[in-house]
Amino acid sequence: MIVTAKSTKKEGALAPIYLLHGTNTFILNEQKKKIIDQALNEDELEFNLSNYDLEDTPIEVAIEDAETLPFFGDRRVVILNRPVFLTAEKTKEKIEHNLDKLQAYIEEPAPFSVVIIMATYEKLDERKKVTKLLKKNASCIEANEMGERELRSFIIDRLGENSIDIEDFAVDLLLQLTGLKLSLVINELDKLTIYIGEGGMIKREHVEKLVPKTLEQNVFALVEAVVKRQVSDALVMYDELVRNNEEPIKILALLVSQFRLLYHTKQLSAQGYGQQQIAQTLKVHPFRVKLAMQQSRGFEENELKGIMKDLANADYEMKTGKMNKSLILQLFFLQRSAQ
């Protein structure tokens, strides 16, 4: 979901209370920085900027700070982090909060303070009185993770600012390697921009060279090699992972997870489920389902069943110590060439 924003303040004016909520911490932190920069100059930060962790500090302490006149300046900024009481999460809170104090402040905030509430949660509990009050009275900014389509547009637009083009295949790989995490995408785009230079073209090989792969992504490449029956490539990749001190049993667990996803995706797809429906049913990101749908086309359902059985046997052999762990997976890859 792309960033959405709702604000009760006039354009250019500071609101007394901001509610920044959602799972996209990169965007939320950018918004927080903009508010702070507008409210305080550099000399005022030391005396008039306060941060509170509400899992360790009662809300009334923070409110008392917001009601205190600023030092050597016109405004005070008070940031409230981790307000779990705005959610429906069942947690044993270490601190008891006087929410009546917060509610009274929301209805009549101090004119000289800016309170920023950082609720980096997927959902807020809309049934709670304090949440309703904030939604009504605060300037609300919601930012959640972007979907694949929004991220593609973001990548193209951001590179376009430096007159840089990017191949579709390069975008595909960048999204895969970053797991559609906006903060990672931005970091890697900055790196690629410096490497390519203004007016250049980013190709797949540039992404392969500069963007690091996680173990999960290396295992995805292993599965891709199995799909294409490129057993020698799979063995080379596996050997490199082992030489980099990755544990065979961890690699096996990730292989099981990926092939299980392929199997269930193929089953559901055969039943007429679309990408979004499969993602909701399996509780995985739609982009992962998209990739799984592509990979699963290389197998019949019975073949995936057989692979799952072979991986279960490999797991048993590893855990019972019947054979060298590394050799067990090498044999698994070699079996694929014989089928």
Describe this entry's structure for a reader.
This protein is an alpha/beta fold and 339 residues long. The chain folds into three domains: 139 residues, 3-Layer(aba) Sandwich (Rossmann fold); 63 residues, Helicase, Ruva Protein, domain 3, CATH 1.10.8; 123 residues, Zinc Finger, Delta Prime, domain 3 (Up-down Bundle), CATH 1.20.272. Helix content is 57%, strand content 10%. The strands form two sheets. The protein has a six-stranded mixed beta sheet, sandwiched between helices. Strands 7-8 form a two-stranded parallel sheet. The longest helix is centred in the C-terminal third of the chain and has 23 residues. The N terminus is likely disordered. Pfam families: DNA_pol3_delta, DNA_pol3_delta_C. It comes from Priestia koreensis. GO terms for molecular function: DNA binding; DNA-directed DNA polymerase activity. It catalyses: DNA(n) + a 2'-deoxyribonucleoside 5'-triphosphate = DNA(n+1) + diphosphate.
